[in-house]
């Protein structure tokens, strides 16, 4: 305690003023501070410390640390993460964006420089011994590893939209093969596939260009075309697999990359969607099944076949024959199985029963016979629309089956004598089925359709179907001959076969080129077939041809008999046809032909054909055989 310096009142040592008189008080002087007495610990050096225990306490942890560090140095292998060296960006416009890949091979090489030892002699020897890989130096080894580690793929690199995903995939098989080399070199490889989202492409406007496209179809299913008017008369639309389209195909429509870029740059818009899939269902196709024809189409082709068979009967049967009836017995549609073989893709065959009576009076004897002949009229490759209607541009060119014929004998009324006759067609329906349907079963399958009528369409009491539009030629000017052939193979009989066969050949040829299938032409040698193919390839510009006239220079026919049933015939013939564009042109008007004929079955073949400009028919007998 201290006392006030004025009044002597006792105050606390830290009082600044007297509580009694208020006199200020001086601070206590810091003189003579009290110094604490330090405590002293006495250490007995050399007697109380256990250095052995101290060494154990310090040494064991240090030893463990040193061993761990050594093991780390021995076991640790640096890892090369390949994804760190691949940068993927996206450039361009939305919808036509592209992947831009930056593979940082320089950084990878620098990393390999740090990992691989500077002195690699022992390492290179080890690699050669264990892996049979030889490297001259460290650089060669490093370059090899860097090249092998750049094995990755991007699944879509262009035509990208913002929001699309692309996959970066490492070739882990190839990288796996490198793991053993990496192990020897003291490192590991890490490569993980990545899914990247497309972003940052320049935005463009959207426009639906796919609605209300002006589309036209051409060609035949299997070889069809889709023709699309350019969008806004400016941007051409591509069609996937155009030229080989079939009904039922689903094809993709799109703009080419150049067209797409041009549209975006010119309009600031892109198609929405970028492409469009549509199904093809409007191509004409070959008739492959009898059930496919609509009722109206079936009637249309039946009427055409009826006119054709009536025309055949009128122009072919002898004046000594009476036609009792002509009825349709079968209708079959044949469809080819083997697409690589020659011949019609399909055909519809009408089988007619022609019943006729033959009477001939020689003056000494009378011969007569009544006979059925089953004759075939067919139409090759009938084109129908998907709904079964016959296509408007199909040309009804009937093919007559004159390749098959059979013998009969007309009996004498007064003796045992007979007169041999020969009929075109088949003696029975079974014979037709054996030679057409069963023989062709290896190449064709067939479906049948009920004939529209079994009533006679010609003959005594028949309907005698009109021949209107059946032929543009006047049949009265045609030279006709008998299907009922006389006893001997006279020159007139051989000529008749020539007329018939060359007419059949040329009609078949015109039908073949109109349908762009020159391989359909038959009854020709390999030499003639090659000539026809070359001529077709050189001259056919996609026109449709119509026959106006086929004629033979009768004076030029030379018949040489090689055996009882083989004749060699040479002659000249020509044709008048019309192109599709309406211009009349005489096609091959002066042809020289060599034909081999076997009258017993009318087996024939054209063995030589050539244009002969020296032919002059002036003053010769020119026979119009258009209606044969």
What does this 3D model show about the protein?
This protein has ten helices and 31 strands. With 628 residues, it is of the alpha+beta class. Strands 18, 19, 20, 22, 23, 24 and 25 form a seven-stranded antiparallel beta sheet that branches. Strands 26, 27, 28, 29, 30 and 31 form a six-stranded antiparallel beta sheet that branches. Strands 6-7-9 form a three-stranded antiparallel beta sheet, with no helix packed on it. The longest helix has 25 residues, at 51-75.
Describe this structure in a few short sentences.
This protein is an alpha+beta fold and 628 residues long. The protein is 24% helix and 30% strand.
Tags for this entry?
seven-stranded antiparallel β-sheet; six-stranded antiparallel β-sheet; alpha+beta; 10 helices; 30% strand; elongated; 628 residues; 24% helix
Largest sheet: 7 strands, antiparallel
Helix/strand structural class:
alpha+beta
Secondary structure tally: strands? 31
Helix content: 10-25%
User: Spans of 5+ residues with little confidence (pLDDT < 50)?
Assistant: 30-35, 69-74, 467-487
Shape type? elongated
How far the N terminus sits from the C terminus, by CA atoms, comes to 161 Å
């Amino acid at each position: 305690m201290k006392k006030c310096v004025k009044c002597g009142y006792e105050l606390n040592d830290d009082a600044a003023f007297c509580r009694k008189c208020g006199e200020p008080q001086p601070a206590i002087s810091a003189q003579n501070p009290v110094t604490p007495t330090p405590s002293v610990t006495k250490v007995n050096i050399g007697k109380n410390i256990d250095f052995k225990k101290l060494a154990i306490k310090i040494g064991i942890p240090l030893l463990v640390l040193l061993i761990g560090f050594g093991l780390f140095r021995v076991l640790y292998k640096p890892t090369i993460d390949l994804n760190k060296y691949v940068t993927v960006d996206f450039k361009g416009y939305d919808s036509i964006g592209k992947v831009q890949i930056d593979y940082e091979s320089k950084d990878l090489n620098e990393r390999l420089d740090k990992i691989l030892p500077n002195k690699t002699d022992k390492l290179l020897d080890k690699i050669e011994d264990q892996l049979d890989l030889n490297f001259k130096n460290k650089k060669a080894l490093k370059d090899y590893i860097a090249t092998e580690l750049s094995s990755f793929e991007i699944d879509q690199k262009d035509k990208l939209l913002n929001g699309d995903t692309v996959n970066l995939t490492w070739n882990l098989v190839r990288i796996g093969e490198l793991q053993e080399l990496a192990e020897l070199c003291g490192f590991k490889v890490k490569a993980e596939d990545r899914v990247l989202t497309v972003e940052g492409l320049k935005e463009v406007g959207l426009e639906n260009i796919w609605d209300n496209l002006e589309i036209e179809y051409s060609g035949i299913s299997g070889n069809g075309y889709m023709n699309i008017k350019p969008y806004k008369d400016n941007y051409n639309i591509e069609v996937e697999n155009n030229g080989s389209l079939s009904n039922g195909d689903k094809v993709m429509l799109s703009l080419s990359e150049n067209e797409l870029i041009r549209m975006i740059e010119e309009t600031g818009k892109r198609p929405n969607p970028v492409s469009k899939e549509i199904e093809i269902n409007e191509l004409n196709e070959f008739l492959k099944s009898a059930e496919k024809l609509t009722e109206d189409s079936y009637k249309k082709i039946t009427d055409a076949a009826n006119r054709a068979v009536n025309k055949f009967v009128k122009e072919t049967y002898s004046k000594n024959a009476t036609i009792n009836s002509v009825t349709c017995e079968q209708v079959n549609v044949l469809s080819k199985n083997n697409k690589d073989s020659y011949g019609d893709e399909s055909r519809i065959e009408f089988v007619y029963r022609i019943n006729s009576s033959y009477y001939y009076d020689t003056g000494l004897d009378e011969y007569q016979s009544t006979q059925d002949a089953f004759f075939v009229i067919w139409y090759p490759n009938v084109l129908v629309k998907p709904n079964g209607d016959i296509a408007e541009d199909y040309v009804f060119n009937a093919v007559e089956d004159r390749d098959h014929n059979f013998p009969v004998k007309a009996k004498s009324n007064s003796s045992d004598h007979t007169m041999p006759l020969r009929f075109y067609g088949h003696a029975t329906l079974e014979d037709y089925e054996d030679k057409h349907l069963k023989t062709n079963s290896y190449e064709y399958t067939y479906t049948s359709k009920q004939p529209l009528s079994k009533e006679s369409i010609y003959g005594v009491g028949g309907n005698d179907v009109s021949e209107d539009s059946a032929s543009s030629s006047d049949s009265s000017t045609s030279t006709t001959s008998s299907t009922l052939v006389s006893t001997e193979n006279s020159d007139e009989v051989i000529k008749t076969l020539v007329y018939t066969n060359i007419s059949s050949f040329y009609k078949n040829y015109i039908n073949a080129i109109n349908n762009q299938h020159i391989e359909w032409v038959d009854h020709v040698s390999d030499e003639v077939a090659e000539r026809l193919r070359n001529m077709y390839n050189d001259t056919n510009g996609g026109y449709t041809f119509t026959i106006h006239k086929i004629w033979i220079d009768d004076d030029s026919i030379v018949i040489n008999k090689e055996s009882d049933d083989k004749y060699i015939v040479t002659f000249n013939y020509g044709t008048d046809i019309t192109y599709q564009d309406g211009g009349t042109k005489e096609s091959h008007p002066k042809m020289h032909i060599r034909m081999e004929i076997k009258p017993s079955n009318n087996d024939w073949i054209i063995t030589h054909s050539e244009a002969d400009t020296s032919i002059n028919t002036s003053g010769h007998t020119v026979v119009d055989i258009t209606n044969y």
